[in-house]
Amino acid sequence: MVNAFTICKNSKDNISYAIQTSLPIGSFNRISRTGINKAKPDNESGKLSFTVAVDFSSLLVDDTYLTNPQNYFINIPNYNIEVSKKKMPQYTHEIRITTSAKYISPTKLSIQLMNIIPNWIDQYSDDSCTHINSEGMMEKTYGLKQLVDGIYSAFNYNNDVLSEINLNINL
Question: Is 35 helix (H, G, I), strand (E, B) or coil?
């Protein structure tokens, strides 16, 4: 298994995205690439769900990271996402946004792709280098965590946010 973590200066504005009108649950009218109105949940399921196509090609992040919903922060807790890789002419991924809220209120939904240092950095880092012959120690690197943390803080210009998607949901 190969582990990778890329540290670079990213701009939150460097991705393009657009709300898609295919396969919604509930109903809405798309008024722009980033906005919908007349949003109503489905009568039977009580859910509102729609898809946003996103172009993450400018980010130096692998698909495993991009498709993990735990790497995203959503400013409204009753909205959930699923991310999948898609081959479309202008977009690389689809984000399926779903809410089970009984009443949809006008909101500005923000979905942020966070820049999180992966757990494997801790797993493969050794802080003491005192028991080199112990089991598993040959798989570790002395000071790896401190090195990665230092580089990460030098390039972390966007408060841990790689990209941000802002959507307007109106009644």
Answer: strand
